[in-house]
Amino acid sequence: MTGPRLSRRAFLIGSCSAMALTPVAPVAQAARLGSAYDDTVWEGLISAIAGPVKTPQILRDALKRDFTKTFGVPARQDLVTHFGRAGIATVLDAQEGDREEQVRWIAAYLFTGSADPADKNAPMINYPYALGWKSLSFAKAPGLCSGPEFGYWLNPWEAA
């Protein structure tokens, strides 16, 4: 027994219609955010805010993670899109809307080592890597001067 046959053309038209109705915008946005171009713009943005000092990779990775957690993927995408079009150097100019707050948050994150610069009680998870220490020619981060680990300076003094 044979039923009505579906032609190739009808099948393709139906498949294309189904694909057009599928919500792909969030997936496309998330996939685009991981592109090499977006990563390059993000890294350039961090470098422009940090200035002429080498930023440790661990700090860069933590910044990307915590910025996305605090502001969300759309905010990071907005920064990448805006500075990709306007140019990285414009990050030093006054920004409009939420971008100004976000750029200031990134700067505070890089230079203080705080997990969330907007929260005064946030843990200082990146304190030893903070760029604030690189701006001081006469000091190093506590725990990096001598001693086996971060926080060594908190222990009472004892002879070596």
Describe the structure.
- Residues 16-22 and 24-31 have low confidence and may be disordered.
- The radius of gyration is 24 Å and the shape is elongated.
- 51% of the residues lie in helices and 0% in strands.
- The termini are far apart.
- Helix 3 (36-50) crosses helix 5 (73-86), helix 4 packs across helix 5 and helix 4 runs antiparallel to helix 6.
- The protein has 6 helices and no strands.
- With 160 residues, it is mostly helical.
Defining traits:
6 helices; single chain; 160 residues; 51% helix
The major beta sheet can be summarized as: none
Number of helices: 6
Oligomer: single chain
As a whole number of angstroms, the C-alpha radius of gyration is: 24 Å
- Total strands: the figure is 0
| Low-pLDDT sequence parts | 16-22, 24-31
Distance between the termini: 94 Å
% residues in beta strands = under 5%
Helix content: 40-55%
Shape: elongated
Helix/sheet category: mainly alpha
Instruction: Write down the overall mean pLDDT.
Output: 75
Query: What is the ordering of alpha helices and beta strands?
Result: HHHHHH
Summarize the structure.
With 160 residues, this protein is mainly α. It is built from six helices and no strands.
Secondary-structure blueprint:
Blueprint: H1 8-21, H2 25-33, H3 36-50, H4 57-71, H5 73-86, H6 98-112
Helix pairs in contact: 3-5, 4-5, 4-6
